[in-house]
């Protein structure tokens, strides 16, 4: 397949180009003012870069045009299109798709996708996760919004499988005498770690990019207001994160920062997967159809996670709620007036802590 990428020097689209090239596709692309590090990486891979978005590139006749979110239907002050190539594609009825959609259909299908999302730290966490899996001998594929020093490239297909990775998941105890491990089919799927961006997909698809990835493991690091050019408020971003959570399989896992109240709201909107939390002690989460115990990452290992903002660490300890025996309750008085038998989410969100088997239904 020959793909021609509009906006190829973006960190995401450049990584996509590298993956397509590694998979054996013919890759060309264009951008305005091509720049490193992506331009250097792409030229090293032998990918032809064209300056600008001139309509003459239609002569390349690729099988599909892959459209980056830098492209729009905008017009210059003189009324001419800012991206004449895009106008030519539309006029000709030529096939086109977005980068995330192409990635989902041609790279991520059949893989165990680990998606790292959040306002801050996506690139760092994605790089760390990919290197941890690499060091464990699992040879993950990855796409990072930058060039990790350890790998020297922003993306690769990878060759490992999730069979070894599956051992970190807690499974039911085996029967006495059982010695043979029989991994489920999903455990044989190759691992792929991806930086999951909440920015929109393309001018013709305003969903966040990460909605296309369908991860089996989603890591939600934090969530604050950002991208004011496309989101009206924090609630609009929370809605997109909830759409991401909706795509995680019931046999998948959501790993969430339990101290981030915005992420608490995201999960309260609905979650159908196993949830693991980091940031403080263990808690209990009542999900749809079953109750799970959340084990904080720091509670299971002596070296507790220390990457918390100073304002979080400096918060004074809060009184435990004696009525329900749960975690620190910020609204103890209201909780008691309502009675421990039933407390609504609005009355007792517990600042990101879930506790009690009947308090919160996701």
Describe the strand arrangement of the main beta sheet, using strand numbers.
8-7-9-6-12-13-14
The average pLDDT score comes to: 76
Helix content: 10-25%
Q: What general form does the structure show?
A: globular
What count of helical segments does DSSP give? 10
The H-and-E topology, N to C, reads as EHEHEEHEHEHEEEEEEHEHEEEHHH
Rg, Å, rounded:
23 Å
Structural class assignment: alpha/beta
Distance between the terminal alpha carbons, to the nearest Å?
44 Å
How many strands appear in the DSSP assignment? Answer: 16
Biggest pleated-sheet summary: 7 strands, mixed
**Low-confidence residue ranges:** 166-187, 281-362
Question: What's the oligomerization state?
Answer: single chain
Strand content: 15-25%
